[in-house]
Amino acid sequence: MVLFALLFMSLSIILFTISFFRAYNPGKLSLSAPFGLGNIELDRAKLSEKELDIAWKLYVQLSTRKAAIPLEDSDIITEVYDSWYQLFSTTREYLIEMPARDIEDNENAQKIIALALDVLNKGLRPHLTEWQGKYQKWYEDEIQLDKYKGKSPQEIQIIYPQYDDLIKDMRRVNIELQKYADQLKRFSHETPANKPTKIISWFKEKWNTTV
Known about the structure:
The protein is mainly α. Helices cover 68% and strands 5% of the residues.
């Protein structure tokens, strides 16, 4: 009876061990960055709710503003620019509020944050630097003229001398921001790695550190 119990326990341990190691599936998660910023690879074994939370909040910021919402001919340019400017402010505030301990030694979180900053500084900022100031100066001067009294903002903005070039570049930026939002949404719904993957990856990392 004792021998049978020992055999049963040994078999159970063996089956559990096999099942445990079969469940090991670290893999990599890839995000395609917009604006030609390349791809970023995230360690799925270390994926936590923190990174998913970051991605989701950034996605909401984009999708609730005229950033990742497709531009239409009826959109008012100054309002779009206001929305893009607010995207800078809210993203910055959100990242600043994150405790340093939540991102320390967390490469996944650091990569997502770096991507968010690159999208703003290398993707969105160049357009704003090129177009926003001179367009808004032109628009503010034009709306003061009597000949435009009674006209809508949409009717006035199409008179801008470089309107076609401006809108073309705005649509380019808008499309890239839509791609970015889609990637964040996809990533925010990702399922973190299972327990065996996390445990085995932790031991492998500790082993490589001590060897």
